[in-house]
Design brief:
The complex is a heterotetramer of chains A (about 525), B (about 350), C (about 270) and D (about 425). Chain C contains 10 helices and 10 strands. Chain C is of the alpha/beta class and about 270 residues long. Chain C has a domain of about 80 residues. Chain C is globular, with a radius of gyration of 19 Å. In chain C, about 50% of the residues are buried. The N terminus of chain C is likely disordered. In chain D, the strands form 3 sheets. Chain D has a 7-stranded mixed sheet, with helices on both faces. In chain D, strand 3, helix 4 and strand 4 form a beta-alpha-beta unit. In chain D, helix 2 runs parallel beside helix 11, helix 3 packs parallel to helix 4 and helix 11 crosses helix 12. Chain D is globular. Classes of the chains: A mainly alpha (about 525), B mainly alpha (about 350), C alpha/beta (about 270), D alpha/beta (about 425). Chains in contact: A-B, A-C, A-D, B-C, B-D. Chains B and C meet through helix 8 and helix 9 of B and helix 2, helix 3 and helix 4 of C.
């Protein structure tokens, strides 16, 4: 309790304190081993000042100037050892460099210290951090924390860690208890621990001489493996749906411009790219404000509008003149795509640009230890669903949708009954392009944003639309999800390269079976 | 205007151009390149010989493409694959001809030495034989095209569906060839050729010989294509393009017609690929990328579909423009190229040939 | 419901023979259809349709839109495969097993509702391509026209009154001329059975008249099935009429029989 | 004048019956030395190569401002091979025979280099290749200013094996399926085996070009890492890195648990990534922008000013990286060699290149090996920081000599470390 109190105290006021100067210097100037020793010493010291120092190191606020070790916060610096204010700020300062190993130790140390934080979330995070990262020295701390812990979730994690640590030591009873606890784990690391118990030694005996423990371990292992297998299945399911949703987003716009309107739109990928770059521009505008996390709210409509505008302009200037000559639209739109790529390259440079995830889309939801569903992907799946529903509503429930369907089904007839076909074409193409822009906005969250962005999606998009059946929205959806699953299942089995090849070959064979795609209507219309 | 399909090819002017072309390829170029001293302003350098040789290879492909697209109405977005397969088939022979002059000074191609392969994989069987590889140049693309075409045409896959699956085919092949394990040098492909039929490859004479052979092949392809398209076979093809159903109800088994021209076109592409590789000095899976195949279609469209001579001009124009623009305005050349494609489709729907025809 | 006699088809060994051999019309029947059903996504286009055509017969088929006329032709020519039922050409040729090209070679010619000719070919070439000949790839590569073949084309040109337009590009012909050209193409195939889908649509009265005469002159040598909406035309040429409705045969008989059939009256004049 | 001639030539080629009249150049101004710049400005490689063109032009501008070379100004000839390998060969031939350049700076990726190599050898040209590569090649006509595997890959792995690097026991070798990753991984596998790592503790994984879905890969890495302390060695090619790193960050695979060391990810590649979740992941290079020394400071300042002046894209955040440094060293060393040889004659310049030194922005004095055409380079391991820069956490003690023929590949022990066919010039 004392430590906790002082940590929180320190956050408000840096009280007077004094640490062992030698330890602090080791942390500041020493090599890896010395730094780690210093960290261990500071944890053991349990001093609030030590906690503060460790926190500063974690936050990257530790600097050295000459022989001094400083904690620098903005323009203020205090002597890390004495806590005295250092003014003026020395000019020549260097960051104290922590490598992964030190950072790992530091993480463990901080976690151990945070185990008694009053905030449940902090404790939970700390306990989680410790599950894979605790060493024997922390056992007393963990035990102490367990004694006072009230939250079941934190308690479970701590027990698990304790079990991990006690597996090798302690009485037979405590070890059996530990093995049992491990059986409740969802952490793949635990599997290795249990396997270690069951391992046969070279002489033919077992690494673990006690048979009871081995039997318990066997049971725990089975339970654990079952759980892990489920986790893995859930993981594959999620990745498949996620890939499917991305393919769907990429293909939906094309399902309109190509599927409904018959324009072989090779510039579709570049419309996606326009959406992604619009997102980038909007993000940059928001960077200077306090609402950065909300930039997507503006970027979504902006990317729709930007791509739709480009699409409508293209329709008016070029594609308009090519209706009824589908293969020539291929040529012209290919030319357009080259020009769009080069335009972007000229304006934004050939390099990728950075699109940051808003904070709420970073990280993920942990299903089991190791099976993480990233928020960005969850959001994209939902987004794809929303776009799909929106598009469906637009096409079936609005006048524009009615017009679009009328024009695509029978242009002369539609024109006769007074549908402004030319304008409908423009709007429909704009809609398809806008949806491509939305795809770009979504893709910017998980992939790179560069001039070549579109090129990597164009082939896939066409595959999806054609596989689903041209002009069949439902087919597009099924094809996208189907390809997502096929790709991911095969990848798990044969690796990414062969999976991709196999999927392409599958498409070739599938089209032989259903030459009009998955959802083509069998009709009697003359095609001669 | 009289005449249907058959009477529109090669007026006297066409034949005159062809004759002139023969003179240029077999007479003027060799003399200017080999006999005229290098410091003379009339000397044609090796750069021009290889560049024009390369463009002629592309032109052969364009004519082959015109046979299937312009005449039979099958838009292939995978012709680059057949081209590359021909190139790879012949490339195997060229790799074997390097002998022990590679980086490792060992009798096997460098990438195999590096991968620790002690024996040639099965694909390389007999690859040190010129005739075997020359046969592969024809058989491999031909067989693939035949099998693929047989199933696709029999299932009546057509239009954009066919285009897309040809694209899938070439894309899949590209990924396959990128793998080292496939046994064709992965991404680096084949390069560093030294000899052909034991004659050093980097001499002006060899280069000129390759150039002349390419020219002869181009002329041969043109004549063959002309013969095909003016025969009743050609009229059936064009009929299939315009009204396939009617052709079937006339009693023609259209599958075989399409299959024949499709396979022939693939074989011609393979030959072009085989001629291309020793001249440019490299073959790599990039040749199979979908973009390359789309470009082939673009040459044909720029020149004018269904005219045979048009695609040749298209291939020359587009590639000439590419070679020129990439050094004249390296930063902006894509604008120019893209603009050409758009303008041609908008204003010259029949391609350059349509434009020339109109002017007449 | 139907009166047509099609019981003679199931004769033992002839079933399932994929025939390229000549037409066996020993029973005087050129085409049998029995219990043909075709459905498109739940919609029954043909529903147990049975029909037979005699050698040399000229049969008119009428029926409201959606009655299944075109689908019936699709089934005969192999464009659509029936879900159930049998179609025999003569006694031995099972049409459901042949491709369009094989059916055509066997001796069935078809004219489409919308004239389908080769628009970029000349009239002469159109006829040349449809001429009865060996239509395998190898032959077409090296073939040239014999004088007999040229004569035959010239004769057909005369029949369809396009001898002045032999070198014209077919796409430039008038609609009626295109119809005639297509009929000419059928004649060049020398078929045993001609299927004609609305042959006089878009023709002038004069042209219609001549078409009728042509058909009547063809009957006897060939069997003809004419689908037509133009009742005046039908009346002029018809000897026997079949009325289709909702995928089945509603009535069959002479013009007057059909006109007086209460079911037909109900369908045509309606509730 | 040049343009007009090319228009003429274009017209000829377009007619196909081209008779290349007067294609031999007769340039009036002999007062310049032509220098070829052969980097893709369009196509897939433009992402990486464009800056190399810019930094080369900056070097040329600087050299010209200081009076040029041998009293003559350098005249850059920039062409765009458009990420198309046959076009690389064509452009190389054009530079050498039409423009008659004295030297060419260019290429990125081995396939582009291998496509132009026969041309340079045939015409005895001179190429400076500024990017790290898999080795297994030596040509007298090429100077390799990027790293060989022993100057990048092996030190990185050694670091990760050390206690300081986290003492990794299991290894995921992850790459794009092409030659550089395959070769590097082969060398690494042999190296790891020599250090006693068992095959079951090495997992090699490849993804196709342009792969953008790394969900399964990252999940697999996690699974593999459950079996013991794991490090990932990534040779993922340029474009796929952003989706890979975004996936890493989002799936919460932290550097403290499973560090990823990359050989083709530098400051420029991370430009497109939010690096906050990636802190601690590593890269091995011979130069990092964050290095603090006067040479680097001056160079960075120069680059920032140049980028601003030329209004280059990304000038608001000018970045330098390892290949840029290698390109920079290359052109300056060439200049020194020309001055030493007092001619631009290729054979003499090659001879004069041996042992050249140049004060490199990385802080060391780079030296061109007397024999093997590679630079001696110090190797730095950097950890990604939140600001997209790298923090050097480890470095070799002094420069390392390149081993283009890796000793971990069978048969290479017999190779000599010098290209054949060099002219011996004695003074």
């Amino acid at each position: 309790m004392r430590i906790l109190l002082t940590i929180s105290l320190w956050l408000f006021a840096s009280g007077a304190f004094a640490l062992d100067a030698a330890t602090v210097n080791k942390l500041g100037f020493g090599d890896g081993d010395e730094k780690i020793a210093a960290i261990a010493a500071l944890v053991a010291e349990g001093d609030p000042a030590a906690a503060a120092l460790l926190q500063a190191a974690t936050d990257g606020e530790l600097q050295t100037a000459g022989k001094l070790v400083l904690i620098v916060k903005g323009e203020e610096a205090v002597n890390a050892a004495t806590g005295a204010k250092v003014t003026p700020l020395p000019e020549e300062r260097e960051d104290v460099i922590l490598n992964n190993r030190v950072r790992r130790e530091l993480g463990g140390a901080m976690a151990a210290l945070k185990l008694i934080s009053p905030d449940r979330a902090t404790r939970l995070a700390a306990a989680k951090e410790l599950t894979g990262n605790a060493d024997q020295a922390m056992l007393p701390l963990i035990k102490k924390a367990l004694a006072s812990e009230t939250d079941a979730g934190v308690k479970q994690l701590l027990e698990l860690t304790q079990a991990t640590l006690e597996l090798k030591t302690g009485t037979k009873e405590s070890r059996i208890a530990a093995v049992r606890t491990l059986g409740l784990s969802t952490n793949p690391n635990t599997k290795m621990l249990l396997l270690g118990i069951l391992e046969k030694s070279k002489e033919g005996g077992y690494a673990e001489p006690d048979e009871d423990i081995r039997i318990e371990a066997q049971k725990s292992l089975k339970a654990l493996e079952g759980r892990l297998a489920w986790g893995e299945r859930a993981g594959v399911l999620f990745t498949s749906v996620s890939l499917g949703s991305i393919l769907l987003l990429a293909a939906l716009g094309l399902a309109i411009t190509y599927g409904l309107m018959g324009v072989i739109n090779m510039a579709h990928g570049e419309l996606i790219m326009v959406g992604a770059y619009t997102t980038y521009v909007v993000q940059n505008l928001f960077k200077r404000t306090d609402f950065f996390d909300w930039y997507l709210l503006a970027a979504v409509p902006a990317s729709f509008i930007a791509a739709a505008a480009v699409g409508m302009a293209l329709e008016r200037l070029v594609i308009r003149w090519l209706y009824g000559r589908p293969l020539e639209t291929l040529l012209a739109t290919w030319g357009i795509s080259l020009m769009l790529i080069q335009t972007v390259r000229t304006i934004f440079g050939a390099q990728n640009v950075q699109v940051e995830n808003p904070a709420f889309m970073s990280g993920g939801m942990e299903l089991l230890t190791g099976v993480v569903m990233p928020w960005s992907r969850i959001v994209i799946i939902c987004f794809a669903g929303a776009v799909l529903v929106g598009m469906w509503l637009l096409l079936t429930k609005t006048r524009l949708g009615l017009f679009v369907r009328a024009v695509t089904q029978n242009r002369p007839m539609a024109s006769c009954v007074g549908v402004p076909t030319a304008r409908v074409d423009t709007w429909a193409f704009g809609l398809g392009s806008g949806i491509a822009g939305l795809a770009g906005c979504a893709l910017s969250q998980i992939g790179n944003v560069g001039p070549d962005l579109g090129q990597s999606y164009i082939v896939d998009s066409f595959m999806v639309v054609v596989l689903g059946g041209v002009g069949q929205l439902a087919g597009t959806v099924y094809a996208a999800l189907g390809l997502g699953f096929a790709n991911k299942l095969l990848e798990a089995w044969q690796g990414a390269v062969l999976a991709k090849i196999a999927v392409l070959v599958f498409i070739i064979f599938f089209i032989q079976k259903r030459p009009q795609g998955m959802f083509a209507l069998r009709g009697r219309a003359l095609d001669a | 205007m009289t005449g249907g399909i058959s009477r529109r090819l090669y007026g006297p002017r066409g034949w005159a151009i062809l004759a002139l072309f023969c003179v240029a390829v077999f007479g003027v170029m060799p003399v200017l390149n080999l006999a005229v001293p290098a410091d003379s302003p009339f000397h044609v350098s090796a750069y021009w010989v290889t560049l024009l040789g390369k463009i002629m290879c592309y032109a052969i492909v364009a004519v082959a493409m015109d046979l299937v697209w312009g005449y039979a109405g099958i838009l292939s977005l995978g012709h680059g694959l057949f081209f590359a397969l021909g190139g790879y088939s012949f490339g195997m022979y060229l790799m074997r001809q390097i002998g022990s002059d590679g980086q490792y000074r060992q009798p096997m191609p460098d990438f195999m030495v590096f991968l620790d392969w002690k024996e040639f994989p099965w694909q390389w069987w007999n690859s040190d034989s010129f005739w075997w590889c020359a046969m592969l140049v024809i058989v491999v693309p031909g067989l693939l095209a035949y099998v693929f075409g047989y199933f696709a045409f029999r299932s009546r896959v057509k239009g954009v569906y066919l285009s897309i699956i040809t694209q899938a085919l070439t894309f899949a092949a590209m990924l396959l060839f990128f793998r080292n394990a496939t046994g064709f040098g992965g991404n680096n492909g084949f390069t560093d050729f030294r000899r052909i039929l034991d004659i050093p490859i980097a001499t002006p004479q060899t280069r000129m010989a390759l150039f002349a052979i390419t020219g002869a092949t181009l002329i041969g392809t043109l004549l063959l294509a002309r013969w095909l398209t003016t025969s009743r076979f050609g009229r059936v093809l064009a009929a299939i393009r315009d009204a396939e159903q009617r052709v079937m109800f006339c009693g023609y088994d259209t599958v075989h017609y399409k299959l024949f021209v499709w396979t022939l076109s693939a074989v011609i592409c393979g030959v072009a690929g085989a001629l291309y590789v020793p001249q440019v000095g490299i073959i790599n899976p990039g040749e199979m990328s979908p973009a390359n195949s789309i470009e082939i279609a673009i040459w044909v469209a720029v020149g004018g579909r269904g005219t045979l001579i048009g695609p040749l001009i298209g291939a020359g124009l587009v590639n000439g423009a590419k070679s020129y623009f990439t050094q004249a305005f390296p930063e902006y050349w894509l604008f120019a190229l893209g603009l050409i494609f758009i303008l041609v489709t908008l204003f010259l729907p029949q391609g350059v040939m349509g434009f020339l025809g109109k002017k007449k | 419901m139907s009166i047509s006699a099609t019981t003679a088809t199931g004769e033992g060994g002839s079933l399932g023979r994929v025939a390229r051999e000549g037409l066996d019309s020993t029973h005087g029947v050129v085409l049998y259809m029995e219990d043909i059903s075709v459905s498109f996504d739940g919609f029954k286009a043909l529903n147990k349709l049975s029909l037979s055509i005699d050698i040399g017969e000229l049969r008119c088929v009428i029926g409201p839109n959606g009655a299944g006329k075109t689908t019936m032709m699709d089934v005969i020519t192999g464009k659509t495969r029936p879900d159930e039922g049998t179609v025999y050409f003569g006694q031995t040729i099972d049409l459901t097993r042949l491709s369009e090209a094989q059916i055509s070679t066997a001796g069935i010619g078809r004219k489409f509702q919308k004239p389908t000719i080769f628009e970029h070919h000349s009239v002469f070439e159109n006829l040349e391509l449809s001429m009865k000949a060996d239509k395998r790839v190898r032959k077409t590569l090296f073939s040239s026209l014999s004088s007999a073949q040229k004569d035959s084309i010239a004769e057909t040109l005369k029949t369809i009154r396009l001898n002045d337009s032999a070198d014209r590009v077919a796409g430039l012909l008038s609609h009626g001329q295109k119809q005639w050209l297509e009929i000419g193409m059928l004649l060049m195939q020398e078929p045993r059975l001609l299927l004609l889908d609305e042959p006089v649509a878009g023709m002038s009265d004069d042209e219609t008249e001549r078409t009728g005469e042509l058909f009547l002159s063809l009957a006897g040598k060939h069997s003809l099935v004419v689908v037509e909406h133009d009742m005046a035309f039908v009346e002029k040429i018809a000897r026997k009429i079949t009325v289709l409705h909702e995928g089945g045969v509603l009535a069959e008989g002479s013009m007057s029989e059909v006109q007086n059939d209460p079911k037909v009256i109900e369908v045509y004049l309606g509730r | 004048m040049k343009r007009r001639m090319f228009v003429k030539q274009l017209a000829l080629s377009a007619a196909v019956a081209a008779i290349g009249l007067g294609s031999t150049a007769l340039y009036a101004q002999a007062k310049t030395i032509k220098v070829g710049v052969l980097h893709s400005l369009s196509g897939t490689m433009a992402i990486s190569e464009t800056v190399l063109k810019d930094v080369t032009l900056m070097a040329i501008e600087e050299i010209n401002a200081k009076g040029g070379v041998l009293g003559m100004k350098l005249e850059p000839v920039v062409v765009d091979p458009a990420s198309n390998w046959p076009l690389f060969a064509e452009k190389a031939r054009q530079l050498l025979t039409q423009d008659k350049v004295a030297v060419t700076f260019g290429c990125w990726t081995s396939v582009s280099r291998k496509s132009v190599l026969p041309v340079f050898e045939e015409l005895n040209g001179l190429l400076f290749y500024p990017v790290q590569y898999e080795g297994e090649e030596l040509s007298k006509n090429v100077f390799y200013t990027g790293a060989a595997p022993n100057q990048q890959a092996i030190p990185a792995v050694e670091y990760l094996m050390s206690k300081e690097g986290g003492a990794a026991k299991r290894w995921v070798l992850l790459g794009t399926d092409y030659v550089y990753p395959r070769t590097t991984n082969k060398i690494l596998r042999a190296f790891l085996k020599s250090k006693g790592v068992a095959d079951k503790d090495i997992d090699e994984k490849y993804t196709p070009f342009g792969h953008s879905d790394y969900q399964t890969i990252v999940a697999d890495v996690k699974k593999f890492a459950a079996g013991g302390k794991t490090a990932v060695v990534s040779t993922i090619n340029g474009d796929s890195n952003v989706p890979f790193y975004k996936e890493l960050g989002n799936q919460g695979l932290k550097a403290t648990d499973v560090p990823v060391v990359a050989f083709s990810v530098g400051e420029e590649e991370l430009r497109g990534v939010d690096t906050k979740p990636l802190v601690g992941h590593l890269a091995a290079w011979n130069y990092f922008m964050s290095q603090k020394n006067p040479t680097n400071d001056a160079w960075k300042k120069q680059w920032a000013a140049y980028a601003k002046k030329m209004k280059l894209a990304g000038a608001d955040k000018p970045l330098t990286n390892d290949p840029m440094e290698a390109a920079w060293i290359g052109i300056h060393m060439w200049k020194q060699a020309v001055e030493k040889a007092k001619t631009t004659d290729v054979d003499k310049v090659i001879a004069a290149m041996a042992g050249q030194t140049f004060k490199a922005p990385s802080g060391i004095t780079s030296k061109m090996d007397e024999k093997n055409h590679h630079l001696h380079k110090a190797v730095y391991i950097g950890e990604v920081q939140a600001n997209g820069q790298f923090n050097v956490v480890w470095q070799t003690k002094g420069p390392v000599k390149a081993e283009p023929w890796s000793p971990f590949i069978a048969g290479n022990d017999k190779k000599k470390g010098e290209p054949d066919g060099k002219t011996i010039i004695t003074k």
